[in-house]
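Students often ask why we bother encoding 3D structure as a string. The short answer is that it lets us treat folding as translation between two languages. Here is a chain of 305 residues written in the first language.
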Amino acid sequence: MAMTTTQDLINPEILAPIIQNKYQDAMMFMPLAAVDRSLEGQPGDTLKQPIWKKIAAAQAVAEGAEIPVQKGEQGFTTATVQKFGNGYSFTDESNIERIGDQVSYGTSEIARTIAEYGDNALMKEAQKVTNTLTIDPTVLGIDSVVAWFNAQNNNGAYTIILNPKTKIAFDKDILDYTRGSELGANLVVNGAVPGPMGVSFRTTNAMEDGKAVVIYSSADDIKFLEELKGAQASDPAKAKQIATTNTGQALKWLVKRDVLVESERKPNNQTNYIYGTQIAAPYVQNPSKVLNLTVNMTAGTALGK
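And here it is in the second language, the structure alphabet:
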């Protein structure tokens, strides 16, 4: 009689897309990044990639006069390919005796830890951008952030990624400002907390207290995300095509190899192993949409008294 063993439950071809989807959903930076798979299978671990630069402002044109033509300034940056991953092991007994499915649990944990690594990698790249601003943890401070980007509030969204302690410094002033008002729902990142003036907050312990990264998402970026989410729910093939669209988002996630899942079993002690790895190169492709903040925590303490 045929018998299903623990090893039969570990099917890498099935687990790979599960981990891929779970880790991308878990990453808070992923919706802010353009995903590029054009380099899959190509050699090289250090890649020279173009970055977006703005052309000069439009000018008044007199009747019959020539329209000014701006020269596009091409910038480049270096993106380093990284392999990152994790593994999970369990015995036959643990899968039988404990409550829950060890394969599902291990898969979820591998996805979670890969997501955390990917987020930290993108955050470190964003922190290299030289655009900086020092603000107080107040609504006026947030207003300064919006003004820095020189964009209309209703045409985009601002995601502030910061430490939970830093977020607390903003809370009192924001609560006073937003009391009795309705906030818009243009959240660019899942789990973000809405704030005033088109801003949303996302907290992470990986960010140093008193520091923050602001990612600006244009109306095109937001439209792209909405279309992608809709297609993911109804048409996966279309979602894959949409995912290649690049609206000039702040970040880029260059995929050299999607999630690879491998399994191993050691019969001598009846222990099972699941390994998951991803090879990608995170970098900032549009520095004009990234702003690094220093938050005056002394001012926040004074406000909280």
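Translate back mentally: Confidence is low (pLDDT under 50) at residues 1-6. Keep this in mind for the problem set.
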